[in-house]
Design goal:
With about 250 residues, the protein is mostly beta strands. It is about 0% helix and about 70% strand. It comes from Dyadobacter arcticus.
Amino acid sequence: MISIVLLSLSATKTSAQLNRKDTLAWQSKLSATGSFLDGNVARLSLVNRLEVAYADELWGMSSRNDYQYGTTKHVKTEDDFISYNFGYFKPQKKIYPYLMGIAETNYRRKIKLRYQLGPGISYTIPSKKGILARLSATGTYEYTRFGGTKFENLSDTLSKIITTARITGRLFGMQRIFENKMRLSYEFWWQQSVEDDRNFRIYNEEILEIPFNKNVSFRTGFRYSYENIRIRGLKPYDLFWTFGLTIGNF
C-alpha cells in the first residue's frame, strides 16, 4: 500500500492574520491537502482552498474558494466546488453591512449549480487580544438546479430547480491559544428557508494549527455539513477530516 499526504501551502503579503478587522493590505492564502492509497484500498482525495482578503476603513472584501476531488476504487466520488464572496462597507466598525454571494456545485449530492445572493449585517464581539469573533445574519435569494426530481422531505415534482428566500446565521471565530502555541479557527452556519421550514442546512468547520517554528505548522481540519432537502436516497450529512502541514510566513 502506498500512502502520500500532500502539504498545505500558505502565502501572505503581511504578517496579519487573514480576516482580522485591523488588516490594511491585500492578503492571500493557498492550501492544498490530500491523500493517495493503492493496494487493498484504492483512494484518491484532493482538497484545495484559495483565500483572498482586503480591508481598509471604507470597504473590504474576502473570497474563499474550495475545490475537492476524490475517487474510490478509481470511480469518481467527489468533484465539488464552492465559492464564498463578501463585500463589506466600513468593515472595521463593530457593526457593518455587507453583500454575500455564494456559488456551488456538488457531485455527491447531485447539485449541478447553486447560487445565493443577498445583503447582511455583521457584529464583532468584544474580545481579548488574539481573539476575533463575529456574528452575522444574511438574507439571500437562492437558486439550486439538481440532477434529479425526486427529493427527500419534499413532495414529488417534475422540476429539477428549487428556489427560495433564505436567512443565514453565522458564527465565525479565530484565536491563539497557549501563548500562540496553537491557532484555532471555527465557523458555524445555519441556513433556513423562510418559505419551507423543512428546507434547512447546517455547516460547521474547525481548523487547528500547531506551529513547529515560524514557518511550518501541523494542520488538521474537521468539516460537517447537513442538508435536509436532497435527492432521494442520499444521506443528509457529509463528514470530512483532513490533516497535513502548513508552510508560510506567520
